[in-house]
Write a structure and sequence with these properties.
The chain is mainly alpha-helical. It has one domain: Aromatic amino acid hydroxylase (Phenylalanine Hydroxylase), CATH 1.10.800.10. About 55% of the residues lie in helices and about 5% in strands. It contains 13 helices and five strands. It has helices at about 10-15, 30-50, 55-65, 75-85, 100-105, 130-135, 145-165, 170-195, 210, 215-220, 235, 255-270, 285-295, and strands at about 90, 110-115, 195-200, 200-205, 250-255. The strands form two sheets. Strands 4-3-5 form a three-stranded mixed sheet. It has a two-stranded parallel sheet with strand order 1-2. The radius of gyration is 19 Å and the shape is globular.
């Protein structure tokens, strides 16, 4: 039985073919193999979380009541999240365009993949899965300051769309939106996905890409091959990245107030038209998709 295995779930493929982005979590479709994959992932990550994760994340695991025993139900997670920060995990059928993803954050919704990788591919999967999204991201959403930072990031994207509407020339509008979206995607990558933070116990991870990766979590904090400068916004927005290898460059913050302030600075740069020509490179941006989403953002 395939259940809800990543890239092998007929139920998900049917939803995609029907154009359904937001879906339910058909919990009864998870196979025993799916639950076993979650158990293996969770149990082997636990010692690494204790060693390398930041305190907010560890506290979030406890607040959500996550365990290794079974794949969590999003409804149960949301009942725990709501009184804490108002965030909720919202099931999606797969990839969400960057601008739509940012808009979801503004609404205190986190698009959440519900499939899970197969047990024989625990180390790396290019597609997100429920372990990455729930065990990697959502514990951080239990913290009010961090959750408000995500909302502020979504508001920043919304302001970018509003500013772009004033540009009448479609070619100029397209170029500006592509550049802004690339800058924002890079910021999200080097902070929310792969960020490091100073704590009383030393450097710890807060980025979900690290917190959901058994190998890279230790590598990020132990390897001499990793460069770990302080977060510098101008550097981040012009820095390309590759998704299929351990990151050689990780940025460090002192606290989440600093992250919030960086997003406010990012918004000022957008409104002052200082993100119109960021450096080319990864990630790729589907400009047509961004244009369509901006056109209907209200």
């Amino acid at each position: 039985m395939l259940g809800l295995t990543t890239t092998q779930a007929p139920w998900i493929e049917d939803a995609r073919k029907a154009g359904q982005i937001y879906i339910s979590q058909p919990y009864e479709l998870y196979s025993e193999e799916n639950h076993q994959a979650w158990k293996l992932l969770y149990e082997r990550m636990t010692p690494r979380w204790e060693r390398y994760a930041n305190p907010v994340f560890l506290d979030g695991l406890s607040k959500l009541g996550l365990t290794s025993e079974r794949i969590p139900k999003l409804d149960e997670i949301n009942r725990a999240l709501a009184p804490l920060t108002g965030f909720r995990a919202r099931a999606v059928s797969g990839y969400i365009p960057a601008f739509r993803f940012f808009e979801s954050l503004r609404q205190r919704e986190f698009p959440t993949t519900i499939t899970i990788r197969p047990p024989d591919r625990l180390d790396y999967l290019p597609e997100p899965d429920i372990f990455h999204d729930v065990a990697g991201h959502v514990p951080m959403h239990t913290d009010r300051r961090f959750a408000d930072t995500l909302v502020r990031f979504g508001q920043c994207a919304h302001r970018a769309a509003e500013a772009a509407e004033a540009i009448r020339d479609s070619q100029r509008k397209r170029a500006r939106l592509e550049s802004i979206t690339r800058a924002m995607a890079r910021f999200f990558w080097f902070t929310i996905e792969f960020g490091l933070i100073r704590t009383r116990a030393g450097l710890r991870a807060y980025g979900s890409g690290l917190l959901s990766s058994y190998g890279e979590l230790a590598h990020a904090l132990e390897s001499t091959d990793v460069h770990r400068p302080n977060l510098q916004l101008d550097w981040v927005i012009h820095q390309s990245f590759e998704i299929d290898r351990y990151q050689p460059l990780l940025f460090v913050i002192d606290n989440f107030d600093q992250l919030y302030e960086a997003i406010e600075q990012l918004e000022r740069m957008i409104l002052d038209n200082r993100l119109g020509e960021v450096a080319p490179g990864k990630p790729e941006v589907d400009t047509e998709e961004v244009m369509q989403l901006v056109a209907g953002h209200n």
